[in-house]
Amino acid sequence: MQVWVFTEPHRGADYDAQLRFARLAEECGFAGLVRADHYQAMGGAGGLPGPSDAWVTVAGLSRETTRLRLGVQMSTVTFRLPGPLAITVAQVDQMSGGRVELGVGAGWYEREHRSYGIPFPPATERFDQLAEQLEIITGLWQTPVGSRFSHHGKHYELVDSPALPKPVQRPRPPVIVGGRGRRRTPELAARYADEFNAVFVSIAEAAGQFRRVAEAAQRVGRAAAGRPPLRLSLGLLVACGRTEAEARRRAETMYEQNTALPQEDPVIGTPDRVVDRIGQLAGIGGGRVYLRLTELADLDHLALLGERVLPQVAPPGGTGSG
User: Fold this and answer.
1) Which of 303, 243, 300 is nearest to 268 (CA)?
2) Out of 89, 96, 199, 228, which residue is the most buried by the measure of CB atoms under 10 Å away?
């Protein structure tokens, strides 16, 4: 089982706080770190000192870490055009020595779009944009050097692009698609992604989504095309403590900050409880878990998970990118 950490800096964390967290995650032995792509805090959180851009942050972290894999989950299609995004991720992949992964999603938080003047089309249009962005980004990266790439779609048009720069990872960095959609999301993952990520759901709901993804992969002929099976992953909201009381104290902050709790099944308790839930994920075919930690300043929480959970589910040598 690969164990990553998932962070939400839009709730109030500057670059230095994110760097401290990333360096400790690397020191503890976590396989990777992803951050959310948001420009505004949700709910009642004030969000000071304000937003930091996801890919600017990952670029910085890529030069100040050595082993930790890094990514954004999920890059919102409304925030960036696909051509420039392909350039950005390829460059950060070079900067990191080939440690970057790209999650791409349709976006959902309308308020942050209005706050910063970003167009927010209806969901159907955003999913159409997502499909085109996945086709364009993977197409640009996989175009042979010296060749050109063109795309004529409903939302984007690229004409004779040199398709440069190329990422270090070949044929391309891993692509992650995730969500709760029952039709388009599984199909897009089956066509374009290397990993499907279930978000804001329980283990039982994740199992159903994993089945739908497997069915979509069969429909699009993924195996027949010689492509490897999709890795299956789950984001797991965690409030862990050495005692139940300590875990409950962390959960109080988690409940104050997180607006998705009614839709998912957080783990609140001692390390053994977290280990048990990760075991349940493995039992339904999951190969990676993202431990969602809402408070970046709580480095003791991260250290506890690294000390008491990681050795039980991802022993030394088992935390790589896979």
Assistant:
1) 243
2) 89
C-beta of residue 64 within 8 angstroms of C-beta of residue 35: no
Stated as kind and residue range, the H or E segment containing 292 is strand 288-293
Residues in the chain: 322
* 291, two tokens: 């431990």
What are the sequence ranges of the domains in the chain?
A: 2-68+91-98+169-313
For range 238-243, the mean pLDDT:
97
- Residue 7 tokens read as 């962070």
Distance, first Cα to last Cα, the chain: 9
Q: Quick: pLDDT tens for 171-202.
A: 999 999 998 888 899 999 999 999 999 988 89
pLDDT of residue 25: 98
CB atoms within 10 A of CB 117: 6
Helix/strand/coil (H/E/C) assignment for every residue in 14-50? CHHHHHHHHHHHHHHCCCEEEECCCCCCCCCCCCCCC
Phi, psi of 7 (to 5 degrees): -120, 155
254, pLDDT greater than 80: no
Q: Assign domain 2-68+91-98+169-313 to a CATH class.
A: alpha beta
By CB neighbour count within 10 A (0-12 exposed, 13-18 middle, 19+ buried), where does 87 fall? middle
Residue of 267, 289, 251 whose CA lies nearest to 73: 289
> What does the pLDDT average to over 70-99?
98
Residue 120's SS3 state is coil
- Enumerate the β-bridge partners of residue 195: 176, 231
Q: Can you list the alpha helix ranges (DSSP code H) found in the chain?
A: 15-28, 54-64, 82-96, 110-115, 123-142, 184-192, 203-219, 244-257, 271-283, 299-308, 310-313
Q: What is the pLDDT of residue 255?
A: 61
Mean pLDDT of 34-38: 97
